[in-house]
Amino acid sequence: MVSRDTVGTALAGGGVALFVVMLLVSAALAPSLGSATGTDGSRETLVGSQGGGPGLHDYGSVYLVTGNETTWRLADADSYFDVTQLENGSVMAGFMDSGYTDCEPYDSPCVRTGFRIIQPGPDPEVLSEYSFPVRTRGNSEVHDVEKLPSGEYLMTDMDAERIFTVEDGEVTWQWNASSFYEAPPDPTRTDWLHINDVDRIAENRYLVSVRNANQLLVVERGEGKYDSQVVEVVNADPTPEEGPRRGDPDVLEKQHNPQWLDDGAVLVADSENGRVVELHRSNESGEWEVAWSLSEADGVSLRWPRDADRLDNGNTLVTDSLNSRIVEVNESGETVWSYRTPRVPYEAERLPEGETVGGQRYDVDESADELNEIPVLSLLLRAAKSSYPLPFWLSEIHVLLTLVSFGMVLSGGTLYLSEFVRRRRA
Q: What is the dihedral of CA 194, 195, 196, 199, to 10 degrees?
């Protein structure tokens, strides 16, 4: 008769072997993210890189990729975010950096955030900067800025949870999220709404991404400095009176960088759900529904995508942040170009068009709203990937096999120890 310790040893050894073989085989068979692919060397892609390190708050940079090569790079801030090429060829970029001494009302040294105007070229340099101090490096940054026809700069403020315009260093208008959402006592002390994007979609109409509410708002600007109203909510909460306003996480969850395609269609990086979605407003219900989605490219699942732009050629440019890559796909999801980035990118724009207001709609995909998640396993996988730098190819099946391996080792170890204790007592 086989002893309990022999069975235990076999179980534990089998569990370890299963885990090791799973990793080796999966790594060997995994699709390659590659470096740059595609044959068109004329593509110019402007990239804002959040960087790396703890909290992704180190090694930020702005750079231009021409075809498959980086032609210039500026790496002088903790993090860079949204990037835009202006009409005169200079580059505007949201940023966050530490080490400032002008910090009122906070202690020095401190972090400041805002935007910079950069002169691109072989030796890029910062021409000007607008910034203000914030309490911490985390969840306080200006992620997006846009120059308006009036000459004002429109930007987000994640620290105070507002959008505002500035001209010649002075605030000329602002909308406070507390006028629509129930606010905590001090928004600067918590990651309340995480407003991360604002775009002008029409005269005096701004599309706002409220990440932690899973919603997009259309805010209409009035005549006065504080005059405004919310005129549309994408992914509205059907029962806002019952608690904090939150949209359906199966439609959007912790999204980034929406692009207004037309009055009734918007393209969004649906970050927490690991996909890019095109939402259409239903003619019957008026609700916004998923019409097209992309959850993988080149056989690799998207991992916290944070930007998606519908290009003039009809393709979609995706910034797949935690996979450290930028991919261009067509409507069927086929990859036509990709670039492996050295660190974590936040946003990318194809030049010279940049991110436009208005773009081609894709046809409705009847299966587009299916998240294809596996209960518990998908949740565990997302939590692990958002906390640790795990291989991009890890999937729900790897989570399952890891749990099985752990169970075998635990069971085997228990059998072995119980037999060991029994023999010692005998």
A: 170
Report the helix count and the strand count for the chain, using DSSP H and E: 3, 26
Take residue 50 and report the two structure tokens written for it: 């959040």
pLDDT band with cut points at 50, 70 and 90 for residue 33: low
Close Cβ partners of 366 (under 8 Å, ≥ 6 residues apart): none
| Burial category of 226 from C-beta neighbours within 10 Å (exposed 0-12, middle 13-18, buried 19 and up) | exposed
Note whether 337 and 317 are within 8 A (CB). no
Residue among 27, 43, 72, 30 nearest 338 (CA)? 43
The total domain count for the chain is 2
Residue 380: inside a domain, yes or no? no
Q: Which residue has the tokens 């990859």?
A: 335
SS3 content of the chain, % helix, strand, coil (to 5): 20, 40, 40
Are 298 and 337 part of one and the same domain? yes
Average pLDDT in the 273-289 region?
95
Exposure class string for 45-72: b at 16+ Cβ within 10 A, else e: bbbbbbbbeeebbbbbbbbbbebbebeb
pTM given for the model:
0.84
